[in-house]
Design brief:
Blueprint lengths: L14 E2 L2 H14 L10 H7 L5 H16 L3 E2 H12 L4 H17 L3 H8 L2 H20 L2 E5 L2 E6 L3 H5 L6 H16 L3 E7 L8 E7 L5
Antiparallel strand pairs: 1-2, 3-4, 4-6, 5-6
Helix pairs in contact: 1-3, 1-4, 1-5, 5-7, 5-9, 6-7, 7-9
Length: 216
Amino acid sequence: MPQPTAASPSAALVAIPTIIPMSLLEALRNLDTPVEDGLEELAGEIVNKRLGLSQTVAAQIARYQGQVKRGEPVSVDEAVSVFRLAGRRPDAALVFADAGRRAARHAAKGGLGHAAAAVLPGSLGRSIGGRAAAAAARKVLGIDMQVGESGAEAVSTSPLSILALPDGAGCAFYGSALAELLRVLTGFEGAMVHERCRGRGDDACRWRATAVGGYD
């Protein structure tokens, strides 16, 4: 399988697909939504205290949804600020995992690869789905991913997560998103393990697919 090529560090980010900050805020809202546990009388108080349920976040999600429909990106600074907002939470790892899955599903929605993976048999559907996953990873996530019979690998020298959170805590967003792209488009079941990280002093962030019960 060809090795993914790290993008040049000098290729500075200019704009970010709106799917990324939108998915982060959607994850905040999801995790802050009270469970149905019979404590409805406390719901009002909970809503007032949880950022994800605030009118500000709701309005921002609505604005982002409009931008996604129009194909309008956001600035790097705006996307970084949303990443940092998520990173300040005690449940940041859950936020990034949820947001990554959401971003992947948004990115894969309506694509030919998604349809092919659903109707074409075996390796043919996975091959087409793998190409679609790699294309979505590059277009939406800015990550170079290679998908082959032996698995999948992905690399980036300057992911948005490192710009926002230099310790690498936000890289979980990308691991979750890449794994979900593979699940939706190829039927992969497993995780994208973050083997190398800029936050740990490595030259690039690298992920490798680790399947549950084998890649097939």
